[in-house]
Amino acid sequence: MLAGATAAGLLLGPVNLLAQVTLPYPWANLANSPAVWAVAAFAVGVWGVRGLARVSVAGALLLVLAVESYYAAAVVFLGDDSATLYNPVAFIWMGFGVVAGVVFGTAGAWYRSSRRWRANIGLAALGGVFVAEALKDVLSGAFGLPTALILTGVALLVPLVLGRSRRHRLESLALVVPLALVGLVGYLIAM
């Protein structure tokens, strides 16, 4: 699984950069969304190896490599300075990648759990990160209302599409906002 997480991380960064420079507004903003990157760590948890420690390491590895491959792609394709690979901003994003990789890798593993409360929290965490980012963007004025509306729409679709039963969908949907508020606090502390 670490090989898969490594490959996914090395691919996510350049694909993300390509989407940012080719997609029209407001879709390009989604490419640069930490919530979208969290989906990759969640996927590692869903389809990854068993055991929370391994899932956490794989999720963190994926996102740290995605940060570096993003900056490397910017150096190669956009002519950015190679110092961006090791500047303080890159290290900050890698630190966020470790935290997000652990949290959303675990959320993905919980989503596949047979324990209802874990499955609900895991799925709601994925929806919640989209709402948290939408709220953060509106409060900070980062991307504006169109992007926030798309993020919120995705957040609502996550439990509805990925829920395994009507009950799972409804219980997860009910947890999206409380978990989004926790995520918003995390965003605000990080800012």
From TrEMBL:
- Membrane-crossing ranges are 35-53, 60-78, 90-110, 117-135, 141-161, 173-190
Which keywords annotate this record?
Answer: Membrane, Transmembrane, Transmembrane helix
Q: Which InterPro entries match?
A: DUF6518
Q: Any coiled-coil ranges, and where? A: none
Q: What is this protein identified as?
A: Uncharacterized protein
